[in-house]
Design a protein that fits this description.
This protein has about 260 residues and is α/β, with parallel strands linked by helices. Helix content is about 45%, strand content about 15%. It has an eight-stranded parallel beta barrel with strand order 1-2-3-4-5-6-7-8, surrounded by seven helices. Helix 3 links the parallel strand 2 and strand 3. Helix 4 packs parallel to helix 5 and helix 8 runs parallel beside helix 9. The longest helix is centred in the middle third of the chain and has 22 residues. It is globular, with a radius of gyration of 17 Å.
Length: about 260
């Protein structure tokens, strides 16, 4: 079965050029099955209404503030747990499938194992509530080489070990293919190894974080075929910055990954 694809609204939707209703209608007509967003602010009811009208699910949104100052600091746990609890309530109310969370940047004097333990301690405080409400939390894998210097959850093995440590069916990874190509390469094998822990994907071409065309190095058709063949049944969100017309780029991405 082809992968369920979704659109990252903040990148592709431009309110100055179209309405949210018209945008959702057009992406649904292409074949997309969901939208996702970062911090929806006060727009979540409008997003949910437009998406529902056109048969689109709400796949994902951010769960807490601060990518760099995250769960690997114990002193952040009270704040982040409170933010996640509030977002879990919103996600449950509006049917958002997953919330993105962040390890934070590496802290001086803290090993990667110590950072993992700190993340797990914070997450264990909130996971019973996420399980009760039926909402996934997705720790995002990001590269620390180009875009996010110092970020701790920058390797799939580290992320998988964190999943084992948290030990909740509702805690998974957001596997960003662009970021992991930069950090690890060998993308298909990494995905196959980590698939039980993956709750969401993001895409973009590398280098450049733009369209998944033949100017970049990733074979997205082969990657998506491997993911589909492995039985993955959640969402893949397109997060690349298009070089030209946004809707044309979304049509091309959908056809490329619809395998």
């Amino acid at each position: 079965m082809p992968i369920k694809q979704c659109v990252v609204l903040p990148i592709f939707y431009r309110p100055e050029s179209t309405t949210l209703d018209a945008f959702c209608r057009e992406v649904a007509a292409i074949g997309y099955q969901a939208v996702e967003f970062f911090d929806p602010g006060d727009q979540l009811p409008a997003i949910a209404e437009a998406a529902s009208k056109h048969g689109l699910a709400l796949a994902s949104m951010s769960g807490h503030a601060s990518l760099t100052d995250g769960l690997n600091k114990v002193e952040n746990h009270d704040r982040i747990v409170a933010e996640l609890r509030q977002r879990i309530d919103l996600a449950a109310e509006y049917g958002v499938g997953g919330l993105i969370c962040f390890s934070g940047n590496r802290n001086p004097g803290q090993s990667d194992l110590e950072g993992m333990i700190a993340c797990a301690q914070g997450l264990r405080r909130i996971m019973p509530y996420a399980e009760e409400k039926g909402v996934n939390l997705h720790m995002e894998l990001l590269n620390s080489k180009v875009n996010h210097p110092g970020y701790q959850c920058d390797r799939s093995d580290w992320g998988a070990a964190l999943c084992e440590m948290v030990n909740s069916p509702r805690f998974k990874l957001l596997f960003d293919i662009y970021h992991m190509q930069i950090m690890e390469g060998d993308v298909i094998r990494s995905i196959q190894k980590c698939l039980p822990y993956i709750g969401h994907f993001h895409t973009a071409g590398n280098p450049g974080r733009q369209d998944m065309d033949d100017t970049q190095e990733l074979n997205y058709r082969g990657i998506c075929r491997a993911i589909a063949d492995a039985g993955y049944d959640l969402y893949m969100g397109h997060e690349f910055t298009p070089k030209g017309d946004r809707m044309a780029a979304l049509r091309a991405a959908f056809e490329l990954c619809n395998v």
